[in-house]
Amino acid sequence: MMNMTATEEKKKSSTESPPPPTLFPSLPYDISLNIVARISRIHRPTLPLVSKSFQSLLASRELQARRTLIGKTEKCMYLCLKFVGNPKPIWFILAPTPTQQKLIPIPSFPLESPTFVFGKHICLAEMENNVFCAISVTFGQLFWRDTNTEYIRWRPVKGLEELKIPMYAVVNSCGGTRVRVWWEASGQNKKEIWCSEISLERRGVEEVHGVVEWSKSVFTFNSSAYGGFHRFLQSASITH
Protein backbone atom coordinates (compact mmCIF):
# COMPACT_ATOMS: atom_id res chain seq x y z
CA MET A 1 0.00 0.00 0.00
CA MET A 2 1.36 3.40 -0.94
CA ASN A 3 2.03 5.90 1.80
CA MET A 4 -0.08 9.07 1.76
CA THR A 5 1.66 12.18 0.60
CA ALA A 6 2.07 15.15 2.92
CA THR A 7 -0.66 16.99 0.97
CA GLU A 8 -3.11 14.11 1.37
CA GLU A 9 -2.37 13.84 5.09
CA LYS A 10 -2.94 17.58 5.53
CA LYS A 11 -6.23 17.38 3.60
CA LYS A 12 -7.43 14.45 5.70
CA SER A 13 -6.57 16.15 8.97
CA SER A 14 -8.42 19.31 7.93
CA THR A 15 -11.63 17.38 7.20
CA GLU A 16 -11.64 15.36 10.41
CA SER A 17 -13.75 16.66 13.28
CA PRO A 18 -11.73 17.98 16.21
CA PRO A 19 -11.81 15.80 19.32
CA PRO A 20 -14.23 16.87 22.06
CA PRO A 21 -12.73 19.05 24.79
CA THR A 22 -11.42 17.38 27.92
CA LEU A 23 -13.75 18.52 30.70
CA PHE A 24 -13.02 16.04 33.48
CA PRO A 25 -9.89 14.01 32.60
CA SER A 26 -10.93 11.03 34.73
CA LEU A 27 -14.43 10.72 33.16
CA PRO A 28 -15.69 9.80 29.69
CA TYR A 29 -16.84 12.78 27.63
CA ASP A 30 -20.49 11.68 27.54
CA ILE A 31 -20.69 11.53 31.34
CA SER A 32 -18.95 14.90 31.60
CA LEU A 33 -21.50 16.37 29.19
CA ASN A 34 -24.36 15.07 31.36
CA ILE A 35 -22.79 16.71 34.42
CA VAL A 36 -22.39 20.10 32.77
CA ALA A 37 -25.91 19.93 31.31
CA ARG A 38 -27.29 19.77 34.85
CA ILE A 39 -25.56 22.98 35.93
CA SER A 40 -27.87 26.00 36.06
CA ARG A 41 -27.28 28.80 33.56
CA ILE A 42 -26.82 31.15 36.50
CA HIS A 43 -23.48 29.50 37.28
CA ARG A 44 -22.25 29.33 33.69
CA PRO A 45 -20.28 32.61 33.71
CA THR A 46 -17.92 31.11 36.32
CA LEU A 47 -17.27 27.79 34.56
CA PRO A 48 -14.62 29.09 32.11
CA LEU A 49 -12.66 30.27 35.15
CA VAL A 50 -12.30 26.62 36.13
CA SER A 51 -11.18 25.43 32.70
CA LYS A 52 -11.04 26.96 29.22
CA SER A 53 -12.50 23.71 27.89
CA PHE A 54 -15.89 24.79 29.22
CA GLN A 55 -15.96 27.94 27.10
CA SER A 56 -16.52 26.24 23.74
CA LEU A 57 -18.89 23.67 25.23
CA LEU A 58 -21.16 26.31 26.79
CA ALA A 59 -21.68 27.91 23.38
CA SER A 60 -22.36 24.61 21.62
CA ARG A 61 -25.69 23.28 20.40
CA GLU A 62 -24.67 19.88 21.70
CA LEU A 63 -25.02 21.07 25.29
CA GLN A 64 -28.46 22.56 24.65
CA ALA A 65 -29.60 19.34 22.96
CA ARG A 66 -28.44 17.33 25.96
CA ARG A 67 -30.24 19.66 28.41
CA THR A 68 -33.45 19.18 26.43
CA LEU A 69 -32.96 15.41 26.29
CA ILE A 70 -32.56 15.01 30.06
CA GLY A 71 -35.28 17.57 30.90
CA LYS A 72 -33.00 20.22 32.41
CA THR A 73 -34.19 23.28 30.51
CA GLU A 74 -34.81 26.43 32.55
CA LYS A 75 -37.04 29.44 32.19
CA CYS A 76 -34.64 32.38 32.18
CA MET A 77 -35.17 36.13 32.24
CA TYR A 78 -32.60 38.29 30.46
CA LEU A 79 -32.26 42.05 30.71
CA CYS A 80 -30.17 44.39 28.56
CA LEU A 81 -28.98 47.65 30.15
CA LYS A 82 -27.15 50.65 28.74
CA PHE A 83 -24.68 52.52 30.93
CA VAL A 84 -23.28 56.01 30.44
CA GLY A 85 -19.76 55.99 29.06
CA ASN A 86 -19.99 52.37 27.89
CA PRO A 87 -20.77 52.10 24.15
CA LYS A 88 -21.66 48.42 24.41
CA PRO A 89 -24.92 47.38 26.15
CA ILE A 90 -24.59 44.74 28.85
CA TRP A 91 -26.79 41.65 29.13
CA PHE A 92 -27.76 40.21 32.52
CA ILE A 93 -29.53 37.06 33.61
CA LEU A 94 -31.88 37.06 36.60
CA ALA A 95 -31.32 34.24 39.07
CA PRO A 96 -34.52 32.13 39.03
CA THR A 97 -34.90 31.19 42.70
CA PRO A 98 -36.61 33.67 45.07
CA THR A 99 -33.84 33.42 47.66
CA GLN A 100 -31.10 34.27 45.15
CA GLN A 101 -32.81 36.74 42.85
CA LYS A 102 -30.21 39.12 41.48
CA LEU A 103 -28.89 40.23 38.11
CA ILE A 104 -25.70 38.52 36.97
CA PRO A 105 -23.69 39.97 34.04
CA ILE A 106 -23.18 37.59 31.11
CA PRO A 107 -20.88 37.95 28.08
CA SER A 108 -23.67 38.09 25.49
CA PHE A 109 -27.26 37.15 24.73
CA PRO A 110 -27.42 33.32 24.55
CA LEU A 111 -29.31 33.12 21.25
CA GLU A 112 -28.22 34.23 17.80
CA SER A 113 -30.92 36.91 17.81
CA PRO A 114 -33.21 38.06 20.63
CA THR A 115 -36.40 36.72 19.04
CA PHE A 116 -38.38 36.70 22.29
CA VAL A 117 -37.80 40.32 23.28
CA PHE A 118 -40.75 42.15 24.82
CA GLY A 119 -41.56 45.84 24.70
CA LYS A 120 -40.38 48.14 27.45
CA HIS A 121 -43.70 49.71 28.45
CA ILE A 122 -46.38 47.26 27.28
CA CYS A 123 -46.47 43.45 27.44
CA LEU A 124 -49.03 40.65 27.28
CA ALA A 125 -50.20 38.47 30.17
CA GLU A 126 -52.11 35.25 29.47
CA MET A 127 -55.03 35.35 31.92
CA GLU A 128 -56.57 32.12 30.58
CA ASN A 129 -55.83 29.77 27.68
CA ASN A 130 -55.20 32.09 24.72
CA VAL A 131 -56.97 34.97 26.49
CA PHE A 132 -54.59 37.88 26.89
CA CYS A 133 -54.52 41.26 28.58
CA ALA A 134 -52.15 44.05 27.66
CA ILE A 135 -50.24 45.36 30.69
CA SER A 136 -48.66 48.80 30.78
CA VAL A 137 -46.72 50.77 33.39
CA THR A 138 -47.31 54.52 33.19
CA PHE A 139 -46.46 57.25 35.69
CA GLY A 140 -45.70 54.73 38.41
CA GLN A 141 -48.88 52.66 38.04
CA LEU A 142 -49.81 49.39 36.35
CA PHE A 143 -52.68 49.47 33.84
CA TRP A 144 -54.42 46.77 31.82
CA ARG A 145 -56.77 46.46 28.87
CA ASP A 146 -58.62 43.63 27.16
CA THR A 147 -57.03 42.64 23.85
CA ASN A 148 -60.14 40.81 22.67
CA THR A 149 -62.21 43.96 22.12
CA GLU A 150 -61.81 46.77 19.62
CA TYR A 151 -62.63 49.34 22.30
CA ILE A 152 -59.35 50.46 23.87
CA ARG A 153 -59.72 51.42 27.51
CA TRP A 154 -56.89 51.24 30.01
CA ARG A 155 -57.87 50.48 33.61
CA PRO A 156 -55.64 50.46 36.72
CA VAL A 157 -54.60 47.09 38.15
CA LYS A 158 -56.08 46.90 41.64
CA GLY A 159 -54.40 45.67 44.82
CA LEU A 160 -51.02 47.32 44.21
CA GLU A 161 -51.53 50.48 46.24
CA GLU A 162 -48.61 49.65 48.57
CA LEU A 163 -46.15 49.10 45.72
CA LYS A 164 -44.16 52.27 45.14
CA ILE A 165 -43.13 52.41 41.48
CA PRO A 166 -41.32 55.56 40.28
CA MET A 167 -42.45 57.61 37.31
CA TYR A 168 -40.11 55.80 34.90
CA ALA A 169 -40.28 52.00 34.89
CA VAL A 170 -40.50 49.18 32.37
CA VAL A 171 -42.58 46.00 32.40
CA ASN A 172 -42.24 42.60 30.77
CA SER A 173 -43.99 39.26 30.85
CA CYS A 174 -42.45 36.33 32.67
CA GLY A 175 -45.01 33.81 31.47
CA GLY A 176 -48.64 33.12 32.20
CA THR A 177 -50.29 35.61 34.52
CA ARG A 178 -47.05 37.06 35.89
CA VAL A 179 -45.19 40.22 34.93
CA ARG A 180 -42.06 41.92 36.21
CA VAL A 181 -41.62 45.65 36.70
CA TRP A 182 -38.11 47.15 36.63
CA TRP A 183 -36.86 50.55 37.74
CA GLU A 184 -33.79 52.43 38.94
CA ALA A 185 -33.47 53.65 42.52
CA SER A 186 -30.81 55.94 43.98
CA GLY A 187 -29.53 55.61 47.52
CA GLN A 188 -26.61 56.87 49.55
CA ASN A 189 -23.52 56.64 47.32
CA LYS A 190 -25.09 53.88 45.23
CA LYS A 191 -27.65 53.16 42.56
CA GLU A 192 -29.78 50.06 42.27
CA ILE A 193 -31.98 48.20 39.82
CA TRP A 194 -35.19 47.08 41.49
CA CYS A 195 -37.58 44.39 40.30
CA SER A 196 -41.07 43.39 41.41
CA GLU A 197 -42.78 40.22 40.24
CA ILE A 198 -46.56 40.54 40.17
CA SER A 199 -49.17 37.84 39.63
CA LEU A 200 -52.42 38.97 37.99
CA GLU A 201 -55.98 37.69 38.31
CA ARG A 202 -58.92 38.64 36.14
CA ARG A 203 -62.04 39.30 38.23
CA GLY A 204 -65.11 39.79 36.12
CA VAL A 205 -65.20 41.90 33.00
CA GLU A 206 -63.74 45.15 34.29
CA GLU A 207 -61.20 44.22 36.99
CA VAL A 208 -57.69 42.80 37.17
CA HIS A 209 -56.09 42.40 40.60
CA GLY A 210 -52.38 42.13 41.24
CA VAL A 211 -50.39 40.49 44.05
CA VAL A 212 -46.72 41.32 44.64
CA GLU A 213 -44.90 37.97 44.84
CA TRP A 214 -41.58 39.61 45.63
CA SER A 215 -39.95 43.02 45.31
CA LYS A 216 -36.27 43.73 45.91
CA SER A 217 -33.05 45.28 44.70
CA VAL A 218 -31.48 42.86 42.20
CA PHE A 219 -28.39 44.82 41.17
CA THR A 220 -26.22 47.50 42.80
CA PHE A 221 -23.68 49.45 40.78
CA ASN A 222 -21.37 52.42 41.13
CA SER A 223 -20.31 55.02 38.59
CA SER A 224 -16.67 53.98 38.58
CA ALA A 225 -17.47 50.44 37.41
CA TYR A 226 -20.29 51.10 34.93
CA GLY A 227 -20.20 54.84 34.25
CA GLY A 228 -23.73 55.44 35.52
CA PHE A 229 -27.01 53.86 34.47
CA HIS A 230 -28.55 55.20 31.26
CA ARG A 231 -31.65 53.18 30.33
CA PHE A 232 -33.32 49.79 29.95
CA LEU A 233 -32.99 48.48 26.41
CA GLN A 234 -34.51 45.02 26.07
CA SER A 235 -35.71 42.03 28.02
CA ALA A 236 -36.41 38.44 27.05
CA SER A 237 -38.03 35.48 28.76
CA ILE A 238 -36.75 32.20 27.30
CA THR A 239 -37.07 28.53 28.21
CA HIS A 240 -33.90 26.73 27.15
TrEMBL record:
Disordered: region residues: 1-23
Short name of one Pfam family: F-box
F-box domain mapped to chain residues: 25-62
Cross-referenced CDD domains: F-box_AtAFR-like (cd22152)
Matching PANTHER family: BNACNNG12250D PROTEIN, F-BOX/KELCH-REPEAT PROTEIN SKIP4
Protein name per UniProt: F-box domain-containing protein
Lineage, broadest ranks: Eukaryota, Viridiplantae, Streptophyta, Embryophyta, Tracheophyta
